[in-house]
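STRUCTURE REQUEST FORM
Protein name: Dynamin-type G domain-containing protein
Source organism: Chenopodium quinoa
Requested output: structure tokens
Priority: standard
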Amino acid sequence: MAEEDEQPQSPPQKASSLGQTLIPVVNKLQDICSQSGVSIPINLPQVAVVGSQSSGKSSVIEALVGRDFLPRGPDVVTRRPLMLQLIQTKVNNGGGDGGGEVEYGEFLHFPGRKFYDFSEIRNEIQAETEREAGGNRGISEKTISLKIYSPNVLDITLIDLPGITRVPVGDQPSDIEARIRTMIMKYIRHPSCLILAVTPANSDLANSDALQIAGNADPDGKRTIGVITKLDIMDRGTDARVVNRSQEDIMRNRSIKDALAAEERFFRSHPEYVNLADRCGVPQLAKKLNQILVQHIRECLPALKSAISSQLVTVTKEYASYGETPDTRAGQGTLLLNILSKYSEAFSSLVEGKSEEISTSELSGGARIHYIFQCIFVKSLENVDPCDGLPDEDIRTAIHNARGPRSAVFAAEVPFEVLVRRQIGRLSDPSIQCAQFIYNELVKMSHSSMVNELQRYPVLRKRVDEVVGRFLRENLNPAESIIRHLIEMEMDYINTSHPNFIGGSRALEMAHQQIRSSMVVVPVSRQRDTGESDTTQGSERSSRSRAIVRSPANGFIKPPANGVISDQGVRANTEADRNRPTDAVMLVTWLSCQRGYLKPATVL
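Status: completed
Returned output:
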């Protein structure tokens, strides 16, 4: 690359011509995928450079290019993946702007602008990194694409990934190591990606982060290329193939050309490497990478061609389904009505369950709405206990307050209606929540109803989404108001005439039946038809009735099994003492006794 004698660096003519044919095609495909902004399931052949923080990755890449252009520093400097496409150009012998060797760079986010000053390339990499990842050492997965045109490089595509770090600094999250490893695995896990594992010479290869993560993605090591850096500080007795610039050389602005010359002198003068000098060094690494990448592309070409052809058929079919765009206003209006009709039909199909794309993983459309009504809403209503929040003491207090200063035989309806209204009002929240659930599902259905024709016109799609969303939002409030009005209507009029309502005569009838089922009927022998007996019988009946009403339990007498009552008179049983009957039960008991329906037990 940067040496005066460039002939040993050139690959064989066949491999060179093949590399100059295949690699630019792959680079062009990578540019298309990056510029399209869509996710295309095509994994293109490339070389990913991995290693721990400050392992020398940047030095290796700069040595392959032959120029200083990457950001440097003691902390994390590679914070975004850098896709570097090295493109070999012919030597300019015509005396152009760049003389004999025109070298420049182009960024994909700056199309058409050429950076001849490589320090400007470094500054732009830093600026673009900060625009996406921030200025406080944050990281981002968004790739920076850079092309380097030079006659001193071989056609290679490299991806410089952030170095593996364990201690977070600045704005980096606490799980920075896990995030970087995940980012690296996204690139190197594909069989089409070659792995350039960079390890410093002063560390144990058994503990190398680069080799460890490369082993996870490539257990057999068929796609992994190992590179040893920092030869100047490695222990004696160990060997390496590449000598990079030290940090001191970088601080002194030692050029790549001088470093490569020193590297060549090192291998030619070192007794251990003198016989291997023609196979060591960065130029040989570049040549080897080019040959491996070309061979790898040749192996991946059949599968790559098949994947691209399959995608082309799918996209062509989708494009044909869109039809031609009409030029006249009448044709455009017809197309608009057709698209809106298809959108309406798709929405109706989702509601009716007639959509061709039926989900098997979750409920959607009309089925989801039915589930909301029949399961979620019904269950929420069942969870509302009508007696919750109504202790007996509150009911008693409400009844007494309704009586005022008077004692009433029957309970007034006012406290009943007040308490019932309060309980009916508790149905409002579950009903409003149900309306919100239905609204969310309708919004989701509106997004799912976007037909392919709408995908072709993003402005129209956005406008349709806005109009439908606004329509649903504007009708949510009226729906909630109607729900509240329905609840208020139920609260305003308590329908006590409903067949299922227990009150009034129904309550008296049930109380009457309860009394008849719990009392013992004692037959009464007929007295002689004399005035004295009638008077005595009526007097006894009246006294017994009053005894029943005035008993401590306000209940009735339940004699023992033998039909004999003790001398203590009329007493209520233990159960009656604990559960005092209401005034209605007392009245029914008294009337029943007066009319002869029930006969109290005889008091001895």
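Reviewer notes: The mean pLDDT is 74. The chain has 19 helices and seven strands.
Form closed.
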